[in-house]
Amino acid sequence: MNSELVRRLAEDGTLSDAGFAELLGTDAYDAALFAEADRVRRREYGDAVFLRGLIEVSSYCKNDCYYCGIRRSNKDASRYRLDEEDILACCAAGHELGFRTFVLQGGEDPGFTDGKVVSVVSKIRNRWPDSAVTLSLGEKSRASYQAYFDAGAERYLLRHEAADRELYESLHPSFMSWENRIRCLYDLRDIGYAVGAGMMVGPPRQTAAHLIADLRLLEDLRPHMIGIGPYMTHSGTPFAGEPNGSLPMTLRLLAVLRLMFPQALIPATTALGTIHPEGREMGLKAGANVIMPNLSPADVRKKYLLYDNKITAGPESAYNPSLLAARVEKAGYRVVLTRGDPKGWKE
Ligand code: SAM
For ligand 1, is residue 304 a contact (CB within 6 Å)? Predict the structure, then answer.
């Protein structure tokens, strides 16, 4: 009985708003939902968990998102910017460890100019032509996205954050615009990137209806990658007094996303690993199939503090690949270090 709704979601890839509300509003479907999500991920990608080397290139940010620890108004945040040599050294170490995707993520740092992005992307692609470059540098003009793409970046992660404009506006200052965020995503898709979108689960004021609106936006955008994780409180932000997002709701949504987008690459995020010591493993079992361990230099890792207690050591570090591999295997999967392009991209 509890599996009927899950079966319908798996078959049709979608549900009515009422169906989604029913599925998300209770734990009654969880066992059937997670089992079905796991079946679909194994059908599409087997037991593979794709590893990506994450390099956090800058903690400077001109934006002021109310939830984020590196927002410009957080005067206590430590700021750093990696230079090209630092980034290439991380890639060299990562390549040696077997990584074949490098994710350059950072705050919206005007000092990390388009010229610098283009230069470092072309150097990475020239030195390691077998490797993919993913960027996650925030909102840019279409011309900038095109320049990065022409330099060899093929994937871009930009969470839409909130499909509902009012919710978006309650999470961001008025100089940031929902339209621009959405414009960026469609530009990226149009240019030919493999695009990643997504949202936090459980930031202040988010309701189930907001999450269903997120699912509808994703249905329209059809991203190749979908990153979701629990909202995590940072004590230096306007949301300091707000509770963390919910782990069970995040897992439920991961499974729903796997059934809606069988071919998507879906990470078990750092936030998931922070909210619970086995959060990543739980995420994998709910349908996630990517992990992005941290390749940033050790001395800056603690400075990219998006939320309190963000994990950086142990299996979180890209420099401990056997530790991570062992945990992934214990969960019933296998780490894979190939480029692992998303299915459906370029088709
Ligand atoms: N500046 C780029 C951007 O806006 O896409 C990339 C860096 S930004 C810090 C990456 C993601 O971190 C955001 O999309 C947001 O969803 C997530 N994030 C920021 N603060 C967070 C928090 N307190 N809890 C959970 N996730 C958070």
Answer: no
Distances from the Cα of 221 to the Cαs of 5, 9, 189, 214, 277, in angstroms? 24, 19, 8, 10, 32
185 in a structural domain: yes
Asked, for residue 343, whether it belongs to a domain, the answer is: no
Q: Tokens representing 156?
A: 């871009």
In a domain, residue 4? The reply is no
In a domain, 269, yes or no: yes
Does ligand 1 come within 6 angstroms of the Cβ of 172? no
Q: Is residue 193 within 8 Å of residue 156, measured between CB atoms?
A: yes
> Over pLDDT 90: what percentage of the chain?
96
pLDDT per residue as tens digits for the range 136-183 = 999 999 999 999 999 999 999 999 999 999 999 999 999 999 999 999
Given a contact cutoff of 8 angstroms between Cβ atoms, the answer to whether 125 and 105 are in contact is no
228 CA distance to ligand 1 middle (Å) = 10
- Tally of domains within the chain: 1
Tokens found for residue 91: 């890639």
What DSSP string runs through 12-52?
HS---HHHHHHHHT-STTHHHHHHHHHHHHHHHHTTEEEE-
**Which atom number of ligand 1 is nearest to the Cα of residue 136?**
6
The residue segments making up the domain with residue 127 are 29-336
Q: Which of 76, 101, 102, 238 is nearest to 173 (CA)?
A: 238
C-alpha separations of 255 from 6, 22, 172, 272, 315 in Å: 10, 14, 28, 14, 23
59, amino acid identity? S
Is the pLDDT confidence value at 269 over 70? yes
Confidence check: pLDDT of 195 > 80: yes
